[in-house]
Write a structure and sequence with these properties.
alpha/beta, 8 helices
Length: 271
């Protein structure tokens, strides 16, 4: 544990979607092993106490916590966050880099493509929003982080995908499309960032009981089937995924890039 903390001490991680689910678990686990955390989240007043708890937990580990309650898919807000990080890093010579950038945004439309009644099917604006938030925003963030020289050799990019990137579920069509696009973006980023010594991988988590999952109609059946199918006899947890990211953040994982990495206890291999 001490060696791990020494390895990452003083490094920074930027997490999109840091206030719940995978983003929350990653923030807490990365802080535990030595990372300072910059978190982007979008919360209303009723859920802000949980954000405050996360910040306090990070600080209790002796790390810095810099959180932004903004829409990560808004370009002007993205620029504000990056400008703040630039100023913050310049105050800490030698200027640190973002060792980890995690894209864990779960905000999209859960409507069928074909519906019996007018107005019940997904619209073009809803489809566009889902793809933009859950997939394309990854590219825009990485572009700006590279332009600002906040990432460099040894940086790691992670994006949360799911088996929905290659499988279907009622009302999940737009999100499934976003996951497939996200995986494609990761492959392209891996190609273009390899000369900079930066890796990019998608993490395909198994079925995990998160707030995002509970918004999917029929999630109860999804959970039950995953529990029965998983060789380990349980669901994936956010901590399982966070611990995998810590492992992949290590300098020894520098040759792992362009992949969709399953963190699911073997769930996906069982038909």
């Amino acid at each position: 544990m001490e060696n791990i903390q020494q390895q990452f001490s003083g490094d920074w991680a930027l997490i999109l979607g840091a206030s719940s689910g995978f983003g929350e678990a990653a923030a807490l686990e990365l802080a535990r092993v030595g990372f300072n955390i910059a978190g982007v989240h979008l919360d209303r007043r009723s859920t802000l106490p949980n954000v405050e708890r996360i910040v306090q937990s990070i600080q209790a580990e002796g790390r810095e916590a810099l959180f932004f309650n903004v829409n990560a898919a808004d370009s002007s807000k993205r620029h504000e966050v990056i400008e703040t990080l630039e100023k913050k890093f310049k105050e800490s010579p030698p200027q640190p880099l973002l060792r980890v950038f995690l894209h864990s945004l779960a905000f999209g439309t859960l409507k069928p493509y074909i519906a019996p009644k007018a107005g019940e099917a997904i619209t073009d604006s809803q489809m566009g929003m889902t793809l933009d938030v859950m997939a394309h925003s990854l590219v825009y963030w990485v572009q700006d982080l590279m332009s600002s020289q906040l990432m460099g050799k040894g940086s790691r990019i992670f994006a949360l995908t799911s088996s929905g990137g290659s499988r279907v579920w009622p009302t999940y069509g737009a999100v499934s499309g976003a996951k497939a696009a996200l995986e494609s973006h990761i492959r392209q980023l891996a190609l273009e960032l390899a000369p900079f010594g930066i890796t990019a991988n998608a993490i395909r988590a198994g079925v995990t009981d998160t707030p995002a999952l509970r918004k999917i109609p029929g999630h109860e059946r999804m959970i039950k089937e995953a529990q029965q199918r998983n060789p380990s006899g349980r669901l994936t947890t956010p901590l399982d995924v966070a611990q995998a990211m810590v492992m992949l953040a290590s300098p020894t994982a520098h040759w792992v890039t362009g992949n969709v990495i399953g963190v699911d206890g073997g769930e996906d291999i069982v038909g």
